[in-house]
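Notes continue from the previous slide.

Worked example: a multi-chain complex. Inputs as given:
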Amino acid sequence: MNIMGQLALIFGLSLVGEGVAALLPVSFPASVISMVLLMVLLLSGVVKDRQIKTVSNFLVANMAFFFIPSFVGTIEHVDLLKSQVLPLLVIVGLTTPVIYLITGWTVQLLMLRRRRKEGAK
Amino acid sequence: MIEAMLTSPFFGLALSIAAWCGGVWLQKKTKWVLCNPLLIASLVIIAILAVFRIPLADYNQGGDIIKLMLGPVTAVLALNIYDERKVLKEYFFPVLAGCLVGSAASLASVLLLCRVFNLDEMLTASLLPKSVTTAIAVGIAESQGGTAGIAAAAVVLAGVVGAVFAPLFAKWFRVTDPVAQGLATGACSHALGTTKAMEMGELQGAMSSIAICVCGIFTSIIAMFF
């Protein structure tokens, strides 16, 4: 599909995501809804990956660019951030290894059990 | 004339893209990790706005158009899952369990520490999604009453910690299974960690890339209940 067609498909998906998010009784990010939707469409074969490939590759390759306005926006909260810089660093520094440890061991135990089962067969 | 130019959306668009190109060029030239194009571009723009006393609202005329694209950027992350569908099928249950536990651990540990430090609601909501990829984190933070900028900063910080320490975490915590290493890296440090996971091995990279999407979904779902 040409770039216009790909854009129409991707923007259309984002629009549907916004619509579904508005219907939900709780707050849920519309972007995640459109991601799940696209995942279902791709895995079921309704949408082929080549139908979105050119635009997707461009967006993913330049992904960090789209975060610039959010980063620039932090200047509005600079005083708040300055006053809380230590807690912020501690929170990020402490939780990251904790998440690694918990996730890693959950999966590792599952994989061990699975290998033992396969070995028993 | 200057006034008309500054309030035009093209001001924010042109400035952002030019600053980004400059950042990319600088990174290629120096090859320093610290010369991250996002960081450089943002700092340059903040400096320009400050020096010329340009209100943030003027920049946001164009900036908001760029922010709007975060929706489509998140949507196409679905390709991560699609490209790795074979690996995902093979390790379906470990992936689901690992990402669910990882997302829950992330939200619970961040919430607990935010309460310990007595942070306000806005800051807490911005920090909650710090382990998922930026595009998704911004969506979660905003739907919970946080701000995109702080969320993005926390995400990048977590990503840097993960990218630098992932191989050490694996050694310290004795996580030797490649599937476990990949999922754990993706769960705690999203896309930045994934780059590291890819260096550790193909399976680690694939798992980490899957974890970005799956953890994003689980984190959004669990965060609904906060």
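Summary box: Chain A has six helices and no strands. The mean pLDDT of chain A is 90.
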